[in-house]
Design goal:
Shape: elongated
Helix content: under 10%
Distance between the termini: 36 Å
Bound molecules: zinc ion
Largest sheet: 4 strands, antiparallel
Radius of gyration: 21 Å
Number of strands: 6
């Protein structure tokens, strides 16, 4: 798969693009990760400021971790429409849909280091 559509605006999107060329929505491509392999990979991400509390400075976490897909759950919220003389339910539609995808990163001890992770403050 090399093409898809932006989930925000529907425009055509190359999965290698870092942003949608039409609406600017970030594109985070995880297709290189084999969630079933158990293979560790380097993960680098910026921690939210409300977690780190380091005077508003950016804190980057680098870790060697095994990614897994813990759950993928789709739910929907039905909404009834009432009518008639007795205000009985006459129709039902889906008012919202949710998809919760839980990815887990389990850090592993690198063979060449005693550090399980690295924090960089910039
Ligand atoms: Zn878009």
């Amino acid at each position: 798969m090399s093409k898809t559509n932006c989930r925000n605006c529907g425009g055509p999107l190359d999965i290698a693009d870092s942003k949608c060329p039409f609406c600017g929505t970030k594109n985070i491509n995880l297709t290189d990760i084999d969630l079933a392999s158990g293979e560790a990979a380097n993960f680098i991400f910026r921690l939210p400021n409300n977690i780190t509390g380091v005077n508003g400075q950016a804190v980057y976490l680098t870790m060697l971790a095994v990614p897994t897909l813990d759950s993928l759950e789709m739910t929907s919220e039905p909404c009834d429409i009432y009518g008639g003389w007795n205000q009985a339910p006459i129709a039902r539609y889906t008012s919202s849909m949710n998809l919760n995808c839980t990815l887990n990163l389990r850090a592993v001890q690198p063979s060449q280091s005693e550090e399980i992770c690295n924090l960089t403050i910039k």
